[in-house]
Amino acid sequence: MSGLLSRVAKFARSPEGRRAVREARRASADPKRRAEAKRLVGRLRSGKGGKK
User: pLDDT digits over 32-42, tens only?
Assistant: First the structure.
């Protein structure tokens, strides 16, 4: 597991990772996207992920 975490940390420090973090922060600032994310997290937590 530590190998995975070190790879994630390495990606986060790369230019592509920093760009992804910026885009995620920008998206999280959008109220519409924030509401959608909150709804999806709620569905995952309740166990109703929409599987058929």
Answer: 999 998 999 99
